[in-house]
Write a structure and sequence with these properties.
By secondary structure, the chain is an alpha+beta fold. The two termini are 47 Å apart. The protein has a six-stranded antiparallel β-sheet. Helix 5 packs across helix 11 and helix 12 packs antiparallel against helix 13. It has two domains: 155 residues, 2-Layer Sandwich (Beta-Lactamase), CATH 3.30.450; 186 residues, Hypothetical protein af1432. The protein binds fe (ii) ion. The site of fe (ii) ion has 5 residues, from loops.
Length: 466
């Protein structure tokens, strides 16, 4: 069982789809195989046809010569009956012999398997192709009486004199049948070879593309930030080595990324700690606000939970709430601690703290994500807040939630110039500002939370958590 490695999250790049390697390989290999098999089948058919035809020619030549040799003595002794019998018996000897004729030098038929032909003149056939001479035998591809056949003519010689001729016709049906049979056999074999070759091409393309697909899948897993599992490798070839190298590389990268993330988290924690100290030191300047940021963070998170926010978002909200008044660090004591109403100039100084807080957070790249929230925590829903007068959807929702918690904590904390409000009193006050300072939807959710689980049972209580 391989141990999963959790990589850091990253964005997924868009990749243009194109035909896969497998399709390209199959598209190349299959036409190539079809051409090769067809070419081979054609060559085998041609060679085999020629061989079958040559066999028939040799048989025809041999038959014609044997008849010529046998007829010679019968002709010399004028034994026409023997010549006739020779023709009949030869014709009977093989079903593919169309006719056998023995002819005298004047062209008259002396012997024929068909007795009706005896005494007639031997008619010349229509030659289609001259097949060639084989010693004293001439072979031709002819048409006689509308039938195509192979004809073999042999001169009957005696002491150098031609005393007659033999003509034997062989049916081409046997040749055509044999060639057809050969073609069918070769076609069947070719189809079998083609099917096997196609399966082989598919197997080969699969063999090549499977490791590539695994590699692509693993890269996708890493790039989308999902949990990476080592690619299983069984083969010892180059592909196997490639996958093993990739596994090693991925583990190295992920280990380094993990270490970097840990380092970044530690750095963030360190900075967070520093900002907490700063926030605490501001609150320490005013004893009445000690623990204010922590209480605001807790109430904002309780509201976030009520609204169904996830843990990651709640963590984000909590940090933003802890930082919300960090800009007060630069505020002079005579403004920060003043118990009477602030002058216009002092108000201006006071109203600079959201912007200055955002500036402090922007100094650290990983805290700059909280800057916009801190900057907007004194904006009002109706656009009459500060510093920019943004309204409704222009104000980050986390800033609106912090504003509610901030107001509630301020109202329920005893100040030198006024007593703290009770939970009920604070709820009434917050409802008064629903639709002006606060979003009505958020106000309703916050009030529901306060009514269901009031955070302040004692009017002298100075906060939920210190
Ligand atoms: Fe503030």
């Amino acid at each position: 069982m391989e141990e999963p490695i959790d990589p850091p999250t990253s964005t997924t790049p868009r990749v243009r789809r194109s035909p896969g390697i497998r399709l390209k390989l199959v598209g190349f290999l299959i036409p190539l195989i079809v051409l090769l098999v067809l070419g081979m089948a054609l060559a085998v058919v041609t060679v085999t046809n020629r061989s079958v035809r040559n066999d028939l020619i040799q048989r025809g030549v041999a038959t014609s010569r044997i008849v010529a040799l046998s007829a010679r003595w019968s002709l010399l002794s004028d034994d026409n009956a023997a010549v006739y019998n020779l023709a009949v018996e030869t014709h009977r000897s093989s079903p593919d012999i169309e006719y056998v004729a023995v002819i005298d030098p004047g062209g008259r038929i002396l012997g024929h398997n068909d007795p009706r032909e005896l005494g007639k003149r031997f008619a010349p056939s229509f030659r289609i192709v001259q097949l060639g001479g084989f010693v004293e035998t001439q072979a031709d591809d002819v048409r006689r009486n509308g039938t195509e056949m192979l004809e073999f003519a042999t001169a009957i010689l005696h002491r150098g004199q031609r005393i007659g001729n033999v003509s034997v016709g062989f049916s081409k049906k046997t040749l055509v049948d044999a060639q057809r049979k050969v073609r069918r056999s070769i076609a069947a074999v070719a189809l079998g070879v083609l099917a096997l070759a196609m399966l082989g091409a598919l197997a080969l393309s699969s063999f090549i593309t499977t490791p590539i697909k695994r590699l692509m899948s693993a890269i996708k897993v890493i790039s989308t930030g999902k949990t990476f599992h080592r690619i299983p490798v069984a083969s010892g070839d180059e592909f196997g080595e490639l996958l093993r190298s990739f596994n090693r590389m991925a583990e190295t990268i992920l280990t380094q990324q993990s270490a970097l993330k840990e380092y970044a988290d530690r750095l963030e924690d360190a900075y967070l700690g520093m900002v907490r100290v700063v926030a605490a030191s501001i609150e320490a300047r005013d004893p009445y606000t000690i623990g204010h940021s922590t209480r605001v963070a807790m109430m904002a998170c309780a509201l976030g939970r009520q609204l169904g926010m996830g843990e990651e978002e709640l963590g984000h909200l909590e940090k933003a709430a802890l930082f919300h008044d960090v800009g007060k660090i630069g505020m002079p004591d005579d403004v920060l601690l003043k118990e009477e109403r602030l002058s216009h100039g002092e108000l201006d100084v006071m109203r600079r703290h959201p912007g200055e807080g955002a500036e402090i957070l922007r100094m650290a790249p990983f805290l700059d994500r909280y800057a916009a929230i801190v900057e907007a925590h004194h904006e009002w829903y109706d656009g009459t807040g500060y510093p920019e007068g943004r309204k409704d959807g222009e104000i980050p929702v986390h800033a609106q939630m912090i504003a509610l918690a901030d107001a509630y904590d301020a109202m329920t904390t005893t100040r030198p110039y006024r007593q703290a409000l009770t939970n009920v009193g604070a709820i009434e006050s917050i409802l008064e500002y629903s639709g002006t300072q606060f979003s009505p939807e958020l106000t309703d959710a916050f009030v529901k939370l306060l009514r269901e689980s009031p955070p302040m049972p004692d009017p002298d209580w100075k906060g939920m958590a210190l």
